[in-house]
């Protein structure tokens, strides 16, 4: 397990387009994922996660709670796994289907979408505003391992800022986790 931190965010960057298979059996596009029952989402969260990473396993419950907190507030969330399943069988699409997330869980087998986003680790969070511009790329909270020790819910605060028509704090603390398991010749430049 190689501990990796997300780089400084390139705030204002547009959300890359994608069309990926979901564990539900559907194909989910960026434009479909960025909508709620109210139309275009005021906040759109793209999370790079996977099944095997201990950092993701430690926060799975909090990701579900984050979804519940904002599900009726014009926020859309999607998770993408891009790990090389030939090296990490637990991250295969078939095993992803066993997860019961309340948000779409997509598979980026080619790793082209993870590369387009510049994702580097699991978890890696990208929060976009209603204009599909990056406004937050940082940690979920201040205690990945121990939920009881959480004192700062950074990502929830960033989402709340967007819902209040404000920009999240520009001083964002990086997310950390396992490096994405890249196929030979793939990954960020």
Mean pLDDT: 93
How many β-strand stretches?
A: 12
Strand content: 15-25%
CATH topology name, in short, is Glutaredoxin
CATH class: Alpha Beta
Structural class: alpha+beta
Based on CA atoms alone, the radius of gyration comes out at: 15 Å
CATH architecture: 3-Layer(aba) Sandwich
What kind of sheet is the major sheet? 5 strands, mixed
First-residue to last-residue Cα separation: 21 Å
Q: CATH H level: which superfamily?
A: Glutaredoxin
Shape: globular
Number of helices: 5
Unreliable segments of 5+ consecutive residues? none
Order of helices and strands: EEEHEEEHEHEHEEEHE
Description:
- The protein is of the alpha+beta class.
- The protein has a single domain (3-179), classed as Glutaredoxin (3-Layer(aba) Sandwich).
- 22% of the residues lie in helices and 23% in strands.
- It is built from five helices and twelve strands.
- It has helices at residues 30-33, 54-70, 93-96, 112-117, 154-163, and strands spanning 3-5, 19-21, 27-29, 35-36, 39-40, 43-48, 75-81, 105-107, 121-122, 124-129, 134-136, 176-179.
- The chain has a five-stranded mixed beta sheet with strand order 8-7-6-10-11, with helices on one face. Strands 1-12-9 form a three-stranded antiparallel beta sheet, with helices on one face. Strands 2-3 form a two-stranded antiparallel ribbon.
- The two termini are 21 Å apart.
- The mean pLDDT is 93.
């Amino acid at each position: 397990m190689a501990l990796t931190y997300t780089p400084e965010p390139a705030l204002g960057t547009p959300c890359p387009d994608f069309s990926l298979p979901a564990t539900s059996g559907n194909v989910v596009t960026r434009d479909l994922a960025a909508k709620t029952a109210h139309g275009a989402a005021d906040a759109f969260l793209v999370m790079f996660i996977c099944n095997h990473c201990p950092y993701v396993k430690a926060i799975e419950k909090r990701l579900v709670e984050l979804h519940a907190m904002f599900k009726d507030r014009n926020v859309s969330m999607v998770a993408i796994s891009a790990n090389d399943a030939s090296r990490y069988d637990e991250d295969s699409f078939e095993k992803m289907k066993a997860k019961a997330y309340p948000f779409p869980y997509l598979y980026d087998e080619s790793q082209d979408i993870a590369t387009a986003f510049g994702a580097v680790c699991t978890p890696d969070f990208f929060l976009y505003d209603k204009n599909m511009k990056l406004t937050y790329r940082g940690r979920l909270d201040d205690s990945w391992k121990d939920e009881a020790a959480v004192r700062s819910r950074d990502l929830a605060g960033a989402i709340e800022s967007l819902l209040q028509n404000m920009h999240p704090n520009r001083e964002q603390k990086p997310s950390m986790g396992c490096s994405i398991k890249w196929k030979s010749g793939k990954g960020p430049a």
